[in-house]
Structure formats: C-alpha cells, structure tokens
Design a protein that fits this description.
Rossmann fold; 11 helices; about 45% helix; about 15% strand; binds beta-D-fucofuranose
Length: about 350
C-alpha cells in the first residue's frame, strides 16, 4: 500500500470515528435538552415508571378519573406507582417525596388544594423529574415547576352554570335566592367554579347567594350542609348551586326529607355530569349538570411520552366539555361512560 492510499484510509477511519462520537452525544443531549430538566434518554416506546398522586376517592368523578389514568398508564406498557391522598395535602407531599426517592421517570399530580406545594415541587425539579398537573392546578408563580396542566376550565364551568340559571329564570320577577355548596376549601375547582358563577351573577342583582358553605365534594357532607341550609332558610331557597354532582345528590336527599321537591321547589344545578346526575335528572329531581370530563388518562399518557421524547408542550391543555339538562337525561343516560 502506498503512502497516499494509507493516509486516505486513516482519514476515512478518523471521519467515521468523529461521526460515531457525534451520534452518541446527540443521543444523550437530546433527552436532557427537553423542557423541565427531565433526565433524558427517553425515546418513545421506552417503558417509564410513573408515580400518580391522586386526591382521594371523594366523588363519582374521582373514581372515574382514577380508573382512566391508571388504565392508560398500564395499557401503554408503563409501570404505575399509585398513591391515594384521602383528600389530605400532607399525604400528597409524602407521596411525591417517595416518588422522588424511587427515582420515577415522571410524576402525575392532582393537587388537593392550590397552595403549599412549592417546596416539594422544587425538590422534584432538582431531582430532574418532570411533573404533570392533572385535573387541578396550583397557585404558584414559578411555572417551571411543572411541565403542563391538563384539565378543565373550572371558571368557565361556573359561568355555564350561572348562564343556564339566568336563562331558565329570566321571567321571574323579584329575588331569586340561591344556596351554594362549595367544593373542598382551597381547591382549584371550588375557587374557580365560585368565581365564574359570581362573575355572571354580578350583572343580575336580583339573583342572590344567600348561603354558601363547603361540602368537601362528598355526598355525605352535601346532605349535612343542605340540612343546615334548610333549617335556617327553609322555604326561602329557590336554587341550589352545587360545585359537584355528588354534593347535589346528597342535598337532594336532604330536600326530600325536609318535605320539598328537588328539581321543582328548589332548582338543582350540579357540575361533573356523572351517571348519578343523569339518574337524578331522569327522575325529575335535578335540573342541569355542567360537564367536567375525567376521562383524560390516554391524553395524559400521550403528553408524558411526548415530553420524554423531547417535544415542547403548551403550559395549559384543556378538556372539551358541554352542559346537559333534565330533558336530555333519559336519552343520554345509557351512553354515559362515567
Ligand atoms: O368536580 C369533583 C371532584 O377536581 C374536577 O373533584 C375535580 C373535582 C370534581 O371531587 O367531583
């Protein structure tokens, strides 16, 4: 082999080596470069370990949501670590810390309340674990602490409830007395559903919220608080606005026991559009429910996989929703999935 041929072969070997090194390094920086400091190395198709810190099991909505998210994670071939916080913030903080210690690839988190999670979310960020807010938002300025929020527009749901009521009672002269059953104190849906409802009501001064209290999103509490409302205001109540269907269903029972007709003597507005609400509407006991769709598991898993493979996501992704009235209930009931 002459000198020229030898040096050409050497050059080719060197070029291939440089190309090989470049390919290796772009593989790893590709992962690291993805947003929110994830650990990288994630390509689509990779089996991920996903920690899911759920609020609790307080409502029909929650049960459907838990199932949807769990199923989507395992159906996609990922490993699920699940923790039920039983509506307690301290349990969620513990769960997230344990997910961090176990070095999961991603954390899905439905915060029970909006505030008080900053420290633990910073810990997740420092550990390089991406956090996905599902269903409920947090009230934290530094939005680099989570990748995206996937959930409903709760303020809009409150507006929808109010707009339905105003249309329904537009012919009524004089005051319309409303009692409100709020969701869990400090939770995003309770804060926002109240805000949206009041925003619309501000232009209709004859509609008055005469009582407002939390029923913690549960049937039992909804019934208990409604009993107290009836005791103090009895026949003065025209409308119940309940931040979810479960509390409305509990309240319906209280109204019947008190001797009034829910749906007629007192108009009942709920939120969620769970099966129980459709049953109550079909029985003429509830007037309307504003949809809040819990079945976003598959959409959530797609987002996690997209993020892991380096895609940039919007900070807020909404679920599309509608409202349903009493007259549609019988027809739609068999098609309801939650
Ligand atoms: O409306 C209620 C549940 O966060 C949207 O939580 C969710 C709410 C839902 O307990 O039923």
């Amino acid at each position: 082999m002459n000198k020229q041929v030898k040096s050409k072969i050497m050059l080719l070997i060197m070029i291939s080596f440089v190309l090989f090194l470049a390919a290796c390094s772009s593989g790893s920086t590709g992962g690291e470069a993805s947003s929110n400091g994830n650990k990288g190395g994630g390509n689509s198709g990779e089996k991920l370990v996903i920690g899911f810190s759920q609020v609790g099991a307080e409502s029909e909505w929650r049960t459907a949501n838990t199932e949807s998210v769990k199923k989507a994670i395992t159906d996609a071939g990922h490993e699920l670590k699940f923790s039920d916080a039983q509506q307690k913030q301290e349990n969620q903080i513990k769960a997230i810390r344990s997910f961090i210690a176990q070095k999961v690839d991603a954390i899905v988190f439905s915060p029970v309340v909006e505030t008080g999670f900053e420290t633990v979310l910073k810990e997740a960020k420092t550990a390089g674990i991406p956090v996905f807010l599902a269903d409920r938002a947090v009230d934290i300025e530094d939005d680099s602490l989570w990748v995206t929020f996937l959930g409903s527009d709760f303020v809009e749901e409150g507006r929808k409830a109010a707009n339905w009521l105003i249309e329904e009672m537009e012919d009524v002269d004089g005051e319309v007395n409303i009692v409100e059953l709020q969701g869990t104190v400090g939770s995003a849906p309770a804060i926002d559903r109240k805000e949206g409802f009041e925003e619309v009501m501000a232009d209709h001064p004859n509609f008055k919220i005469i009582k407002s209290q939390s029923g913690d999103f549960t049937r039992a509490k909804g019934k208990e608080v409604m009993e107290a409302f009836l005791k103090s205001d009895g026949d003065n109540i025209d409308v119940l606005y309940s931040h979810n269907d479960d509390m409305a269903i509990g309240a319906i029972q209280a109204i019947e026991e008190y001797g009034l007709k829910p749906g007629e003597d007192i108009k009942i507005i709920g939120v969620d559009a769970v099966k129980g609400a459709f049953e109550a509407m079909a029985a003429g006991k509830m007037n309307v429910t504003v949809e809040c769709n819990p079945l976003f598991g598959p959409q959530l898993v797609d987002l996690i996989e997209a993020h892991i493979s380096g895609e940039k996501l919007e900070k807020r992704i909404s679920v599309e929703e509608s409202i349903y009235t009493m007259d549609q209930a019988e027809e739609l009931l068999p098609t309801r999935k939650y």
